[in-house]
Amino acid sequence: MYRSIFIIFLIAFYSTVSSVAQEIKRPAMWGIPKITYLVSNYSLAQRYYGEFLGFAKAFSYASPLGEVVSYKINDRQFIEFVQDPKAKDKDRLVSVSFETENAEQMRLYLKSKGITVPENITVDGAGNKVFTVHDPSGIPVEFLEWGPKSLHRASKGKFLSPDRISDRMHHVGLYSLKLEDNPSFYTEILGFKTILRVPEDMSQQPQILYFQMPGTAEFIEHYPTDTRAFSHPCFVAKDMQEVIYTLKERKKDEQLAAPMIGKGRRWLLNIYTSDGTRVEFTEMFLARL
Fold this sequence. Notes:
Layout: H1 2-22, E1 34-39, H2 42-52, E2 56-61, E3 68-74, E4 77-83, E5 93-99, H3 103-112, E6 122-123, E7 129-134, E8 140-145, H4 151-154, E9 169-173, H5 184-189, E10 193-198, E11 208-212, E12 219-222, E13 232-236, H6 240-250, E14 260-261, E15 267-272, E16 278-282
Parallel strand pairs: 1-4, 5-8, 9-12, 13-16
Antiparallel strand pairs: 1-5, 2-3, 3-4, 6-7, 7-8, 9-13, 10-11, 11-12, 14-15, 15-16
């Protein structure tokens, strides 16, 4: 009898040890390194993002969708494009990327949480370790571990145009099927934290939500919308009036819009490419009247 009890104890003990050993921790994330879109043609990307917004074309590389052309925001952030003549009629967001320090560990962690992940990570055409999953709304989220010799890393200190309209992507707005205070994929699994809710009164439905990536000062935004075209990069505007005036001086057939004070009480400017892709600017501080 004692022998049976001892065996049961050993089985329980080793099962517990095995379970603890198999627990996979979420690796650190370090911000939003890039966002990738379909564009009707590369000349549109050059005219709008290169000449109008002033970002420098840094390099290009191959991908399963075709050539990827990369424009540089700063040494760790890029906006990239894949040509598709029918882009205007499609969901143009190819992916939003989250930087992680260990792509394989992140893949295994997400798998352990019940997220559908690819069988393996891959090395993209630029030399980075990547894999892609989809959030509950179908948004393609790429997890990226920089390759030490990747094209992105090799561009450090280069292609930093003095004409770029902003030197930082502050957040990305991502389409969401429904506005939730606690979207489990982002908050429970990835560890994002609600940093802004409008209104603050939890008894009322949220009108806007910002979720902070753990350990960083970068965010995703969820906003009530019925269109996937909502997804956009938002750039820091150190002085909104200077942004507006600079774009006014540069514009040819590009369309400007009036700035507005958003629900977060900051100046906002939203403009669109001829494909209908949105670009947003925000000042970092509350609006001064």
